[in-house]
Amino acid sequence: MDRRTFMSWVGLGLLANSLPVAIAASIKTKPRADGFVPVGTLKQLQSDGVIQVPKFVAGPLLAIRNPQDTKKLVAVNATCTHRGCKVNWQAKSKQFACPCHGSAFKSDGSVVNGPASKSLASFKVKVEGNSVLVKAS
Ligand code: FES
């Protein structure tokens, strides 16, 4: 196999690998009549500890189990209120953490450490069967 053929096969492999991620990231589900959007499953939440929807209709979304009452779920807009970086859920510390300037937020989105001074926006969230649904507005 010559170098050109080999490189074309490598390129096809990379494309095939990234295609499902690209498709999943671009899917935008329309809100139902009640405003809720299915964002994932309880099984997914159980296995991953968090549901992440970077392109949720109302902004990047993180949904978790409430550490204070694991029967309840919490959904927040992952946009840091300091300068707009995306926060991550830190299961060990039970906080949302911003990688840019170190802000930290409680599981309800309220500020623990600045420089951010405003809470993360939160969304209404509910469970129907195995589905996790978040209200878009
Ligand atoms: S953007 Fe999050 S702390 Fe600055």
Protein described:
The chain has 137 residues and is α+β, with helices and mostly antiparallel strands. The chain has one domain: Rieske Iron-sulfur Protein (3-layer Sandwich). Helix content is 23%, strand content 34%. It has 2 helices and 11 strands. The strands form 3 sheets. It has a 4-stranded antiparallel sheet. The protein has a 4-stranded antiparallel sheet with strand order 5-6-7-8, with no helix packed on it. The N and C termini lie far apart (55 Å). About 8% of the residues have low confidence. The site of FE2/S2 (inorganic) cluster (FES) has 12 residues, from loops.
CATH class: Mainly Beta
Q: What is the overall pLDDT average?
A: 84
Low-confidence stretches: 17-27
The helix/strand order is HEHEEEEEEEEEE
**Could you give the order of strands across the largest sheet?**
2-3-4-9
Number of helices: 2
Quickly give the CATH architecture. 3-layer Sandwich
CATH superfamily label? Rieske [2Fe-2S] iron-sulphur domain
Distance between the termini: 55 Å
